[in-house]
Amino acid sequence: MSKQTLLRNVRPWGGAPVDVLMADGVIEQIARNISVDEAMSVYEGQNQLLLPGLVNAHAHIDKNLFGRPWHANQTPEPRRIRDYVDNERHLRRELKLDTRAQSALEVQRAIGAGVTHIRTHVDIDTDAGLAHFEGVLATREQFKEALTMQLVAFPQSGMLVRPGTVELLEEALKMGAECMGGLDPSTVDRDPVRHLDTVFGLAERYGVELDIHLHEPGMLGAFAVELIAERTKALGMQGRITISHVFCLGMIDDAYLNRLIELLLENRINIMSLGSGASSFPPLKRLHAAGVTLCTGSDGVRDTWGPFNSVDMLDRVKFLAYRCGFRRDEDVEFLLGIATQGGAKVMGQANYGLAVGCAADLVVVKGDAPTEAVVNLPPRTLVFKAGKLVAQNGESGCKVQDNLLERFEDA
In which element (H, E) is residue 195 found? Predict the structure, then answer.
């Protein structure tokens, strides 16, 4: 019989206090005053909030500058996507960044912040080849007991405009990427039909998800959404497509937006939004009310693109709430829902949640209500992955080492 872990006196989503019994990586029982057995590992929740593990459904863990001297952002004007990409490629060579080390540093911080699931895009281009992907693969293996990670083979520098990139992307899919990435089919690759045919073709051939970064504005971006929906329907890939950023949904008139929402629903296409910077972004409550699956993430953290993002998904929810103009608890909790259940659904985590039989991926945090935790951003008191303690008081028990994953000893 496997060893049981008991978490005492916690309040799921701010509700009434209960105990949570975990065994074999899942929640076995939720009830008041569960009897303690001397063989159990017991942790005291101190009447704090209990949330499911936080989900970062859009990260770039190969890009950060953690552990490096402060980098003053000097991306040259006019600061288009290609300018950020070119500047990043130059600085990576200059700084001689080790992708495995950098990604491990970010994951360690994320675990401490209560993140139990990450979908990360990994840059693949003809300069670096598969080096970044290999580094992140090693990080995924290193932290596999503390974090669920999906990898996206991502053509950040463009695909058709850099011959040889398609072959590298295909190799990454063979090596274990669960998701194919795409990027601005018109403004980066200058050929939306061929770009989308290529990324959909690879995703279909290898049976993986497809996640397309779409920064293209207004009518141009909206046209790309139509093209994506057409291919999703033609290939029978409903429920396997995510469009990330998709600023255009916040730029078009209501009639066109309603038309696109119908296409998203018909093809079960997910939308990822960060509320980034000064950009327009999708009307999240309207999409949610219509039934569109939503998720969010950190994007790149402390990298050459900018210094502001955080590994903490409660901080992302706070930022999104500010940008949306939300003040009511119910609206902030709606956003917290997309940083938990929404992201888990996009990542295909069917056994996610706070119910008996769900994976025991749990976060204990101070606060009378979930919104208070979002506002105050307290350290995560306890973080469990598959019923095992992986972080305590904001500190991950997973140390960055070459060949060893250290964990907290059972209490």
Answer: helix 192-206
Cα–Cα nearest to 250, from 287, 224, 209, 213: 287
Q: What is the pLDDT of residues 72-100, one digit of tens each?
A: 877 767 677 777 777 777 777 778 889 99
Strands 270-272 and 294-295: parallel
Domain count, the chain: 2
Q: pTM for this structure?
A: 0.94
Burial 168-203 (b: 16+ CB within 10 A, else e): bbbebbeeebbbbbbbbbbbbbeebeebbebbbebb
Gap between the Cα atoms of 271 and 49, Å rounded: 28
Q: Could you tell me the two tokens for 177? A: 């990427």
Residues 303, 391, single domain; the answer is no
- In a domain? residue 227: yes
Q: Which residue has the tokens 């070459």?
A: 402
Give dist(CA 242, CA 119) in Å, integer.
Answer: 12
